[in-house]
Design brief:
By secondary structure, the chain is of the alpha+beta class. Helices cover 70% and strands 10% of the residues. The N and C termini lie far apart (116 Å).
Length: 359
């Protein structure tokens, strides 16, 4: 009887050993699968590994799987969400405390396992911090690049606007007077037109030199001084435009108070001059010589107003090609100074109104 009982005991022990070995093998395979999954989704793989660690606490392979979980804690901290990483590290610490309670043999080497957890988590935290700094630096660099591109676009637009204003006005005046010279029979009229052509081309060169000076010296347009800047001031522009329009047969009336011009800020003065030039160019291209051109400048306590009125010719389109940028440039100049430009027809009269704040 005793032999039979002993044989049964041996069979049960063998069965238990086989079951334990099978369980250990399954746990090891699950741990390896979790590691493989971490290569694609760190949080999912780490969650599965944590489950395997919890199950393996009562298995002979538990300590090995636990060491594996401690070692990969750095990867979890570096790659996973901060909240998940914190939960994983806390779980590892609790698992370590539970293992100490269940397995006395781990107590002697517990500081090594705990140190592994701390070192791995610290390395992961340092990597995560470095990656965050790199991402922030990349965002800043991207912002700098975008700002640089916007700055380049703005500068190109400014140069194009200045060139348009110079070429459109002065070359239009010269072109119209060249036509007068070729057709006029009156010597006095020809001489007058030749003087305007010379003056317009000379002024165009002066303004081009002024623009190059601003670009080369990195100055604002209002900071440039000397003869070029003086020729661009509104008073000089008014006199030049009136002379040129009258030489082309446009009766012109100008209404303004010289004290108003003298008190204008330089940047407002220059902006009004450019807007007036563009309005005068449109008069030459589309205006009716039978109607008087009226230019008025007024001022309130907070703003200065420019109004240009002219008749609209009933003939076909102008012989001088149009860039289509004139009205848009006027509006852009005004908006840059906090003002506005409105242009439109009122019966047979075309009216350009500009308002700029005094500041």
């Amino acid at each position: 009887m005793s032999d039979v009982i002993a044989e049964i005991g041996r069979d049960d022990a063998a069965t238990m050993a086989e079951t334990s070995a099978g369980t250990a093998l399954a746990l090891v395979l699950m741990a390896n699968a979790a590691l493989a999954l971490m290569a694609f989704r760190v949080s999912i793989g780490a969650a599965i590994l944590a489950g395997v660690m919890l199950i393996s606490m009562f298995s002979p392979v538990g300590s090995g799987i636990g060491l594996l979980g401690m070692a990969v804690s750095g990867i979890v901290v570096a790659k996973a969400d901060r909240r998940f990483a914190a939960c994983y590290v806390v779980f590892c610490a609790l698992w370590l405390a539970g293992s100490f309670a269940l397995h006395e043999d781990l107590r002697e080497t517990g500081f090594v396992v705990g140190g592994l957890l701390l070192v791995s988590a610290a390395i992961g935290a340092a990597y995560a911090a470095l990656a965050e700094r790199n991402r922030a630096a990349a965002v800043r660099i991207s912002g700098f690049e975008e700002e640089r591109e916007e700055s380049i676009k703005g500068e190109r637009s400014r140069i194009a606007r200045e060139l348009h204003d110079i070429v459109a006005h002065h070359i239009t005046m010269a072109s119209m007077h060249a036509s007068v010279v070729s057709m006029a029979q009156d010597p006095e009229q020809r001489d007058k037109s030749l003087k305007v052509i010379a003056g317009s081309t000379r002024q165009a060169l002066t303004e081009l030199r002024w623009m190059l000076h601003v670009l080369q010296n990195d100055d604002d347009e209002e900071s440039a001084d000397g003869e070029s800047a003086r020729d661009l001031r509104l008073g000089a522009t008014l006199g030049s435009i009136r002379q040129n329009l009258e030489a082309l047969g446009f009766a012109t009336a100008v209404d303004y108070d010289p004290k108003t011009l003298a008190g204008l800020p330089v940047e407002t003065d220059l902006a009004l001059g450019r807007i007036l030039q563009e309005a005068a160019t449109n008069v030459v291209k589309h205006g009716d010589r039978a109607q008087k051109v009226r230019i008025s400048i007024g001022q309130t306590a907070t703003s200065v107003h420019l109004v240009v009125r002219n008749g609209v010719a009933k003939a076909g389109p102008s012989a001088i090609p149009s860039s289509g940028m004139g009205l848009e440039n006027m509006r852009t100049r005004a908006s840059q100074r906090g003002g506005q430009v409105d242009a439109g027809g009122d019966g047979e009269v075309w009216i350009v109104r500009c308002e700029l704040p005094l500041r």
